[in-house]
Every structure is written in C-alpha cells, then in structure tokens.
Amino acid sequence: MQTAAPSPTLFIVSRVFVGRSGAWFQSAAILVTELAYPTHRSKLVALYQCMYYYHAGGDEASPLVALQMQEITDSIRQEDEMANNARWSQMLKTKGNRHRFHISVTIGIAAQWNGVFNTTGVAAVGTAVIPFLFIYYAGYDLAYTPLLIAYPAEIWTYSLRSKGVALTYMCTYLALIFNQFINPIAMDAIGWKYYVVYICLLVVILINVWLTYPETRGYSLEEMVVVFDEVEADGGIATKASDMGVVSHLEDSHNTEKL
C-alpha cells in the first residue's frame, strides 16, 4: 500500500497501518531479551529484526533453560509480593528506577538529537558532506541503532520492562517531532550557527553516557538489581552470567557439536 500509493492521502493512510503494525513487532525485542543466552543477549537483541533464534539449541532439558526459568520465576514471585509494582509511577519510586528512567529518556532523545542537515545549493559542499555522512553513520550504527532497543530492554525489572522500552520509544518520537517542526525554523533563523547547538548537545550526550550509563555486560536480567539498586541479588552475592560455569559448559558443548 505504501510503495504503490498513487496519492499523498493514501500514502499517509498506509503509514498509519505500517506504524501500528510496526509497534507490535517492536515488542519482540523484550521477548528476545528474556530468552537469549546471558552472554549472547546484547548481540541478539541488537539483531532481533533480521534473524531467528533457537534458544538452547532446542534442548528443553538444557541446564541453562532450567536456570533461567528459575531466575524468572523467582523474579516474578518477588515482584508479585510488591503492591502496585507495575504502575508508571513506580518508575520514579526508587533510586534505581529513577536511574533507569533517566537512561530510557535520554537514550531515546539522544538517538535523534545528534545531528542536523541542511541544503546549501553548493555542489562542492554537497560533495564534501558525502564522506562525513559515512563517518557519522558508521559511529551511529555501532551505538544507537542496536542499543536504542537493547539497553532499555535489559536494565528494567520484569514488571516494568515493557513500560521502560515504551518510554524510550515515546521520547524518540517526541524528539523526531521536534526535529521535523523546529529544526527548519532554527536553520532559517540563525543558519550555520544552529550547528553549534548540536555540537554542544553531542558533548552533553557524551558526558551523560560516560557518567550515568553503567556497564551491564555479563549480568543476567535478574541480576540487574546489583547494578542499579545496589542490593544483592536473591539475598546472596550475584554472579555474572559470563562467569557461570553452566553457560560456558553449554557453549563449549554446542561448539563441539557443530564441529
């Protein structure tokens, strides 16, 4: 409908259908986040739109599956014991959740507020811009393209995970609306000086990421409380998923079978 639209009206209607259906598919990132091997999670969530994933090689008796099911069950049970733990207001109730909230909001906005383009009508300028576009997108696609979904999906607790991802998307779309309506006005008003605004934004984004975005590599989803809430997971010392013998053993076995 969209590609063959004969009129602007039909094109806009097609965008409504594509947008609504696309929103359903975006929730697949949450499912992939919860099912992936702990040591594979970041890569799989980043690539969830373009690949299929069979968990634990299809082995229903896999020790890793049993371990993750137990972690998920315990996490859900503990969160069920907390009243009203799935409300939007809960996202601001604790220090850890406020930290997660800050990340979800800023990563959504920063994904769009990191560059602005304008036309000059000068061929030489257009030619010079081409290599810089490749440089820009090389850096952007290594970071924001995969992490815009992967990072918010893994930092939130089970009951708030979908809301955390939705919050990031809302902030992204609000930033897009700002870009569509405000950037052209600003460019007409102050011209090239508006680029200085975005340079300052990039500096602020860099400092914000450096100071407030913790490393989550190696932790299971249930162990994120150690990173954000400064408590011990399940009443004991949390062990990083990358250090779990069961994961290493399963991966070694799987690689041996393929050989």
TrEMBL record:
<feature type="transmembrane region" description="Helical">
    <location>
        <begin position="123"/>
        <end position="143"/>
    </location>
</feature>
<dbReference type="InterPro" id="IPR005828">
    <property type="entry name" value="MFS_sugar_transport-like"/>
</dbReference>
<dbReference type="GO" id="GO:0005351">
    <property type="term" value="F:carbohydrate:proton symporter activity"/>
</dbReference>
<dbReference type="InterPro" id="IPR050360">
    <property type="entry name" value="MFS_Sugar_Transporters"/>
</dbReference>
<feature type="transmembrane region" description="Helical">
    <location>
        <begin position="194"/>
        <end position="213"/>
    </location>
</feature>
<dbReference type="InterPro" id="IPR036259">
    <property type="entry name" value="MFS_trans_sf"/>
</dbReference>
<protein>
    <recommendedName>
        <fullName>Sugar transporter</fullName>
    </recommendedName>
</protein>
<keyword id="KW-1133">Transmembrane helix</keyword>
<feature type="transmembrane region" description="Helical">
    <location>
        <begin position="164"/>
        <end position="182"/>
    </location>
</feature>
<dbReference type="GO" id="GO:0016020">
    <property type="term" value="C:membrane"/>
</dbReference>
<dbReference type="Pfam" id="PF00083">
    <property type="entry name" value="Sugar_tr"/>
</dbReference>
<keyword id="KW-0472">Membrane</keyword>
<keyword id="KW-0812">Transmembrane</keyword>
